[in-house]
Amino acid sequence: MKIRLLAVGQRMPAWVEAGYTEYAKRLPHDFRLELDEIAPGSRLKSADIRRTVAQEGEQMLSRLKGGERVVALDVKGKPWSTEQLAQQADAWRMEGRDVALLVGGPDGLASACLDKAEQRWSLSPLTLPHPLVRVLLAEQLYRAWTLLQGHPYHR
């Protein structure tokens, strides 16, 4: 199974790149995590933010591949414990489909992306900076994989 993280934002700080890469590289080939960055739209004072978010959403949706399970990261989504994430990941793997995780920019995901999602997942009721979400996702996916393997990482 391949998990693609489609995330709005480019040119992340070094700590984000390092954190994401550290956990992504720990995952095996049959549970690999790939990052697909979406260029953020203009957020100048004169920009129409709703239009910007909609354009980011269009870009994101155009990159989806047929057959992928689409999971939107959304504060109003369902929160999963690490154990529940491991169960979800195992179910995704057993389903035989790749997974696309959608992460919006500073103004969230386009409604078209939320509508396309088969699942909505909330990492936290807290507002998290979208670069940090990349690191959290990679670490939690690695932790879920270790749980499925019976590895002691999750102590």
Automatic annotation (TrEMBL):
<dbReference type="GO" id="GO:0070038">
    <property type="term" value="F:rRNA (pseudouridine-N3-)-methyltransferase activity"/>
</dbReference>
<dbReference type="InterPro" id="IPR003742">
    <property type="entry name" value="RlmH-like"/>
</dbReference>
<dbReference type="Pfam" id="PF02590">
    <property type="entry name" value="SPOUT_MTase"/>
</dbReference>
<keyword id="KW-0489">Methyltransferase</keyword>
<keyword id="KW-0808">Transferase</keyword>
<dbReference type="InterPro" id="IPR029028">
    <property type="entry name" value="Alpha/beta_knot_MTases"/>
</dbReference>
<dbReference type="GO" id="GO:0005737">
    <property type="term" value="C:cytoplasm"/>
</dbReference>
<feature type="binding site">
    <location>
        <begin position="123"/>
        <end position="128"/>
    </location>
    <ligand>
        <name>S-adenosyl-L-methionine</name>
    </ligand>
</feature>
<feature type="binding site">
    <location>
        <position position="104"/>
    </location>
    <ligand>
        <name>S-adenosyl-L-methionine</name>
    </ligand>
</feature>
<comment type="subunit">
    <text>Homodimer.</text>
</comment>
<keyword id="KW-0963">Cytoplasm</keyword>
<protein>
    <recommendedName>
        <fullName>Ribosomal RNA large subunit methyltransferase H</fullName>
        <ecNumber>2.1.1.177</ecNumber>
    </recommendedName>
</protein>
<dbReference type="InterPro" id="IPR029026">
    <property type="entry name" value="tRNA_m1G_MTases_N"/>
</dbReference>
<keyword id="KW-0698">rRNA processing</keyword>
<comment type="similarity">
    <text>Belongs to the RNA methyltransferase RlmH family.</text>
</comment>
<keyword id="KW-0949">S-adenosyl-L-methionine</keyword>
<feature type="binding site">
    <location>
        <position position="73"/>
    </location>
    <ligand>
        <name>S-adenosyl-L-methionine</name>
    </ligand>
</feature>
<comment type="function">
    <text>Specifically methylates the pseudouridine at position 1915 (m3Psi1915) in 23S rRNA.</text>
</comment>
